[in-house]
Amino acid sequence: MPDAHSCNLPSATSPSLDSLSTAAFYLLQLPSLSQHTRQLSASRTDPDMDQNQLDQGPDRFLHHGKVAGAVLARVPPELWLSIFPHLDNKDLRAVTRTCSKFRLLSQPLLFRILDISPFFLAYNTDRVIYRPQHYFQTTLRRLEFYKSPLIAPAVTELWISPYARSGFPSRHLADDLDPTLVISVVIDALPAFPNLQSLTWHCIDIQPSWWNAIQKQSSLKRLWINSSTILPPPSNDQPLPTNSLQVSRLDLDHYAWEGQTTNLVSVHEERLKGVDPVLLSMTIRPESIRSVSIPRHDTALHTLSILSKIQPDAGCTLSSLTVPYSCTSSEDFIPSLTAATSLKELHLLAPQEDSAAPNEFKGWLPPSSLPLLDTYQGPYHLLPIFSNANQPKPRRLRAIELWGLDEPASMTVCDPYQLESVLEELLFHEETLRSLQSLSVIVTHITIELAIVLSRFRNLKAIFLESQDSLIPNRVPPELRSELDLLPESPVSMLYTLLQSHTFSASLHHLSLITHFKNRPDTDPTTQCVGAANFVEGLGQSNSHLETINIRYGTYWTGVVDIKWARRSIDAASEVQQPQKHLAVEPCTNAALQPKQSQVITGAISRSNTNSSTSSVSSTSSQAAVEKFFFFTFQAEIHDCNQT
């Protein structure tokens, strides 16, 4: 990537570039710029660094403070404010050290979240672990900084929770700080944050005075509440505060992991009662709510009871609903769906492995309900109901994520043979064939029959397939099995052989496979990577429309390998010299991969943390060339459990 100071920078006032394209251009340049800034910062603390290194390249501009005049003169501050929010904190810290103007624009973004932990929870108990007394003084000093004129407008999220966003500080049994003191001073500071959009509130009962202050924060759009209720007023003569919030997103009783929702219930809160129904009734307004997400069963039942009472003429704006599958047996489930006339996404969460067997879905969903539904996540046996597959006018589903209840040991996987018959029902409806673009399933094992059915969806753009493989049923007697029959102990090369020459629909752009198959113990890493390379190269040749192929195979105990394949686009000039160099393989470490353009429903895939440079392999490479490439670039891909 070219250095920022040496690029032909477009003018911000150029009529051929709108503000978004200009911002996108500089966003591509900033990682290089921030990298040089971090190098400069390191040099200032390293007296042994050669001064010649400091006076060369882009560091020379940074060292003399000239980058601000060269870059800022071309871009108005409004565009930088559109660019900087896309950087992570590491790059933001580097940008703040670039120049005083960049510091003024980017420093507030480092303090968008005000996180407070007034106490902690002991593991799986109701016992509160208090904070030391000096934490109160520390909170007061932090609040004064956050309330400063430069920082306050950038604060968009307030986190009040016993779950720390990053690690746990040291604690002592003598700590005895009253949590209400900390919470009260934070609530009193709310008027200083005019752009506060999100409030996280976990395991703390809300005093009426706090709720009154929260409701005055008209900018709030999201509430994440766990195991809380509103306390009664001190006097019986005082009524409970009314609901004046216009919240569009409501997340309830989610386990918090690194500050994010997880669709799981926290083990710390199993003995608590979840969000109180009174508090629920004061946070759900049909004319403003857009998204409701609840993994906890009892809280979901209370919420469905409220939603089911919404009148048809109330103009309910709910567009996304996430509840446990166990709630489908509730008498309020169907009325809630029929009341949500704007619902576009329905997510039924699979039961956990240690939970009781869920009850069967009850009720009848009117075919005319859910006219806007385009995303369904849930058990595949309910797909005909929510797709209207048996009705003259099916729903136009765009994205489907399916799990099943066919294996009691897993509670999430589908039998591929039964799944095939359900998917085949959708093939008879032209509207479904035109609308379906993304399909994600988890099966006991991948079969060629399932792949053939998936290939018949002619507008499908992304497929995500995960197979457990250890749960493959023994349908065929041992004496009748062929060499191509998949067994739990089969090597991953058997799956390669099964899919190597399969042709998917011409509309398919992204294919992701996760399998628990592994290589034989005596297979060395280079041979493993060569086999994977040959497979993705062959599959790419058989499917010229595919843009990305992501493969993850192995188990935690034996090691996991992640591979990403991407097709290269070539300029006309370079294509003359290297006509075959259009396929790319990118190594990945520590995580499965998610294509940047894939519309596969996320949740099972996470982004790679690799910083490896992209290497390319010709689709007509010789065996020796492939082995050489993978020997140098894939050594870090085998994750040894003993080392992790």
From TrEMBL:
This is F-box domain-containing protein. It comes from Leucocoprinus birnbaumii. Coiled coil: none annotated. PROSITE patterns: FBOX. InterPro entries: F-box-like_dom_sf (IPR036047), F-box_dom (IPR001810), LRR_dom_sf (IPR032675). Residues 69-114 form the F-box domain. It comes from the Eukaryota. Pfam families: F-box-like.
